[in-house]
Every structure is written in structure tokens, then in C-alpha cells.
Amino acid sequence: NRHLLSTADLRREDALLVLDTAEQMARLSDRAVKKLPTLRGRTVVNLFFEDSTRTRTSFELAAKRLSADVINFSAKGSSVSKGESLKDTALTLEAMGADAVVCRHPASGAPHRLAGWVHGSVLNAGDGTHEHPTQALLDAFTIRRRLGRLDGLAVTIVGDVLHSRVARSNVWLLHTLGAKVTLVAPPTLVPHGVSAWPVDVSYDLDAVLPASDVVMMLRVQQERMSAAFFPTEREYSRRYGLDADRAATLPEHALVMHPGPMVRGMEISSEVADSARSTVVEQVANGVSVRMACLYLLLGGADERDEREVTR
Ligand code: CP
């Protein structure tokens, strides 16, 4: 596959190949091997039409660690503000020699459109409420590193599922990798089509936590809903927030995850976010290894010489 657009169409063997390759990348990093020559002479464009802290910087770091040239394009301050379309923006960047385009866009499906216009690989870095495949891959990588497996694990995803591309990508990927996913959300923040998803749905967080191996908290995305639908912070955190008392009902080995950005005091308390069972910071670090693996496999992984360089 030339692109990484979604986890819904990612086969189990391809997902495992990404996780195994990311493991190799992480081991090299642990051994202080900071840079590989694999993508020397290749150009990766970060094409971001929406704000990002983690995804943009970790794709940049991942590409640089593979020796690629990186162009960071942000819609703010570009000719997009003069009316230039996504297609013309992409073709302009391709004319400058982009081998891969990492795209974040507020419109669901934008990276799929892009993939039809450019010759290089397109990596979806989050499109609207649709998917965020590298986030799900780094989450799966983090779970497997901490708990040793994904098969048979009970993963609970809590919060604003309706607007969450992270939740969607995780649902498909975790299902493919054999985990059992339960969604917990206020009824107004459960997507309409959820009955077709391979998940259980609950409205009672307290009932689900004691049987969860992993609990993944989501931010309420107020920027994607009208003010009339904003839940009050107090009411929301009382029913769906993870505080220390609730976290104490989890099994001892259970992990607490959050893709970031977190709103401390709303969906998660500071005490829980900073606790030993929280993987929030680890997820960010693992994101670099996983994105290195994705770029490597899409742009350079088939080459035998590169294989030797990575496994050396
Ligand atoms: N998790 C995530 O996508 O974070 P950013 O929006 O900061 O990239």
C-alpha cells in the first residue's frame, strides 16, 4: 500500500508489521542511534490545515531521524488564505519534489482526495472527525509494549466519541488486533452509526472500569460543536471524568491513556494524568518510533540495503 489513510482498511499483518518495525526503531533510539540514512534525498511535506502540537512535531522528528528533508507547511500564513485550493496547494508542493505528504485537515476525507492528486505517498495525520491512523498505531504500540499483547484485552474508550477521529481509528485497529472495545459516552456524544461498529456501548463508566485493561480518555471537542451542546465541566466530569477515586477501581495492571491535548479537571484529573499507570508521555515518545516506521515502510522499507541498516 502506497498510502496510510485509515485503519479500517489496514490488514492485521500490515498493522503488525508497522508495530514490529516501530519496535526496531524504538530499540535503535534506546541504543542512542539517533539517525538512519534510509530516506536520504527524499522529501516529506507536513501539510497542516489544522493546529497540532504532537502529530506535526513527531512526524517532523521521525522524517529527520530517517534523514529525509522536511518541509513544514501550515495553512496559516500561506496562500490558502488567498483562496488557493487543497489540490493546487498539494500540486505546488509536489512540484517541489515531495515524496510523501503528511496531511491534517478539518474536512473528513481530505487526505483521500489528496491521494488521488499526487504521485507520492499520503499519510493521514487526522481528517475532521474521520480517522487519525498513526495515533491509533502509536496507541496500540504503547499498549503492546506495556502489557505484552493486544489480543483479548478489554479497552474502554471514554468521552466525546462523536467527534473523535482517534476513537474511530482505535476502534478499527484494536478490533483487527483482537482487542474488545467498549465505548462509554454521554448519549448525545455517541455516533449514530455505532451499531455497525465492532464495539459495546455503555453509559455507565463505573460499571465498566473494573473489567478494563486499558481506559482511553478523550477530550470534549467543543470546537466541533455548537455552544448549545457544550456539557458543563462539573456535570461532565462527575459522570465521565476519570479522577483518582474512579481510577482506583481499575485492575492493578490497567493503563490510563489519552491522545492529548488533555483538559485537566474535565475528562481526567491531574492526579490520574500524572500517575504511574498513565501512558500520556510515553504515547508521545512512541509516536516518533511509529511514524518513523510508517515513513520507512511507505517510502523506503522494501530496499534490502535499508533493511540491513535498520536491523544492524
Ligand atoms: N493527539 C494529537 O493528534 O495531538 P495534536 O493535535 O497535538 O497533534
TrEMBL record:
Pfam families, alphabetized: OTCace (PF00185), OTCace_N (PF02729)
Coiled-coil spans in chain: none
GO biological process, one term: 'de novo' pyrimidine nucleobase biosynthetic process
Enzyme class (EC, first level): transferase
The protein's Enzyme Commission number: 2.1.3.2
Positions with a binding annotation for L-aspartate: K82, R165, R219
Catalytic reaction list: carbamoyl phosphate + L-aspartate = N-carbamoyl-L-aspartate + phosphate + H(+)
Cited InterPro entries: Asp/Orn_carbamoyltranf_P-bd (IPR006132), Asp/Orn_carbamoylTrfase (IPR006130), Asp/Orn_carbamoylTrfase_sf (IPR036901), Asp_carbamoyltransf (IPR002082), Asp_carbamoyltransf_Asp/Orn-bd (IPR006131)
GO cellular component, one term: cytosol
Domain Aspartate/ornithine carbamoyltransferase Asp/Orn-binding: 151-298
Binding site for carbamoyl phosphate: R54, T55, R104, H132, Q135, G260, P261
Gene3D superfamilies recorded: Aspartate/ornithine carbamoyltransferase (3.40.50.1370)
GO molecular function, one term: amino acid binding
Highest taxon of the lineage: Bacteria
Pathway recorded for this protein: Pyrimidine metabolism; UMP biosynthesis via de novo pathway; (S)-dihydroorotate from bicarbonate: step 2/3
Positions of the Aspartate/ornithine carbamoyltransferase carbamoyl-P binding domain: 2-144
Alphabetically ordered keywords of this record: Pyrimidine biosynthesis, Transferase
PROSITE patterns: CARBAMOYLTRANSFERASE (PS00097)
PANTHER family hit by this protein: ASPARTATE CARBAMOYLTRANSFERASE, ORNITHINE CARBAMOYLTRANSFERASE, MITOCHONDRIAL
Subunit structure: Heterododecamer (2C3:3R2) of six catalytic PyrB chains organized as two trimers (C3), and six regulatory PyrI chains organized as three dimers (R2).
Protein purpose: Catalyzes the condensation of carbamoyl phosphate and aspartate to form carbamoyl aspartate and inorganic phosphate, the committed step in the de novo pyrimidine nucleotide biosynthesis pathway.
UniProt similarity note: Belongs to the aspartate/ornithine carbamoyltransferase superfamily. ATCase family.
The name this protein goes by in its record: Aspartate carbamoyltransferase
Natural source organism: Pseudofrankia asymbiotica
Gene: pyrB
